[in-house]
């Protein structure tokens, strides 16, 4: 059975997702107790794509994170490097444009997307900062970046409950319903090793994005970071976006 280590070797990560692909969405719904649906809605709102926009959904897996755009008639490209995840996605949603590609070396031209988004993917990428640079390269000037990722609960008591869930309950539940329970041990470990909200915001900003801000969801279990590629007209700046990193704000 495949599970990646915290080294996140691309071949191991891809093989692990190939393994979990058939039951990926079901297990997600169970383990998040249905929260993923709400989180996904908020991501789509943050992307704010309009008809005519071209959106890149990176590390799109089975395309669940890409579906809302396709449903709204927006041109979405679902890119991932796990062929197993892409196959499940293509079977389920033949209307979505699934593309095999590595986040650290994207098969797209410079300045070709109006928005770039990645949900629960960046943490799995071997070189996440290189992926942030690649996303910047393929985004048009002024394009929006939206990242949803597990993060750090903000209240100590909530953090304790959540860590207990992550390290004990989650692998136990996954062992009953997943085809690859050990991958959920990786999930728990990789979440704990991931930078907190401000740490990720610093990476995004350091890699050249501007107006970086984030919003905590479910008490900080998930954070949605957003930013813009410099060079736009400014019209696309989200309301309330922080102008400098030290101005970062959070909302519940
Ligand atoms: C947890 S899934 C998220 C799928 C989808 N975005 C969602 O919200 O359900 C993470 C995905 O990241 C993909 N991934 C990890 N590293 C990648 C890389 N370097 N390039 C492309 N995809 C990658 C995996 O193959 C997997 O499908």
UniProtKB/TrEMBL annotation:
Enzyme nomenclature, EC number: 2.1.1.163
Gene Ontology BP term (one): menaquinone biosynthetic process
UniProt feature, compositional bias: Basic residues: 242-252
Residue ranges, annotated region (Disordered): 228-252
Residues that, per the record, bind S-adenosyl-L-methionine: 62, 80, 102-103, 119
UniProt keyword annotations, A-Z: Menaquinone biosynthesis, Methyltransferase, S-adenosyl-L-methionine, Transferase
Pathway per the UniProt entry: Quinol/quinone metabolism; menaquinone biosynthesis; menaquinol from 1,4-dihydroxy-2-naphthoate: step 2/2
Pfam assignment, any one: Ubie_methyltran
Catalysed reaction equations from the record: a 2-demethylmenaquinol + S-adenosyl-L-methionine = a menaquinol + S-adenosyl-L-homocysteine + H(+)
Record-level Gene Ontology MF annotations: demethylmenaquinone methyltransferase activity
Cross-referenced InterPro entries: SAM-dependent_MTases_sf, UbiE/COQ5_MeTrFase
Gene3D superfamilies noted in UniProt: Vaccinia Virus protein VP39
Role summary: Methyltransferase required for the conversion of demethylmenaquinol (DMKH2) to menaquinol (MKH2).
PANTHER family: 2-METHOXY-6-POLYPRENYL-1,4-BENZOQUINOL METHYLASE, MITOCHONDRIAL, METHYLTRANSFERASE
Similarity annotation: Belongs to the class I-like SAM-binding methyltransferase superfamily. MenG/UbiE family.
Full protein name: Demethylmenaquinone methyltransferase
Organism per entry: Arthrobacter crystallopoietes BAB-32
Encoding gene, per UniProt annotation: menG
């Amino acid at each position: 059975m495949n599970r990646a280590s915290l080294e996140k070797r691309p071949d191991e990560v891809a093989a692990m997702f190939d393994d979990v692909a058939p039951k990926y969405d079901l297990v997600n719904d169970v383990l998040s107790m249905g929260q993923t649906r709400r989180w996904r809605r908020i991501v789509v709102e943050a992307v704010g794509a309009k008809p005519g926009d071209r959106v890149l959904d990176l590390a799109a897996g089975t395309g669940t994170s890409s579906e809302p755009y396709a449903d709204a008639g927006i041109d979405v490209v679902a890119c991932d490097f796990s062929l197993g995840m892409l196959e499940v996605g293509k079977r389920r949603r033949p209307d979505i444009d699934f593309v095999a590609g590595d986040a650290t070396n994207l098969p797209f031209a410079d300045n070709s997307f109006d928005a770039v988004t990645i949900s629960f993917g960046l943490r799995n990428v071997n070189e996440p900062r290189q992926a942030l640079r690649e996303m910047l390269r393929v985004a048009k000037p002024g394009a929006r970046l939206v990242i949803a990722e597990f993060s750090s609960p903000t209240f100590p008591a909530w953090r304790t409950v959540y860590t207990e869930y992550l390290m004990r309950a989650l692998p136990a539940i996954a062992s009953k319903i997943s085809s690859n329970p050990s991958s959920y041990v990786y999930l728990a470990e990789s979440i704990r090793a991931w930078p907190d909200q401000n740490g990720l915001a610093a990476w995004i900003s350091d890699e050249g994005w501007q107006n970086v801000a984030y919003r905590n969801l479910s008490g900080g279990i998930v954070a949605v970071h957003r930013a813009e590629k410099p060079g736009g007209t400014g019209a696309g700046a989200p309301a309330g976006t922080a102008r400098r990193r030290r101005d970062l704000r959070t909302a519940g």
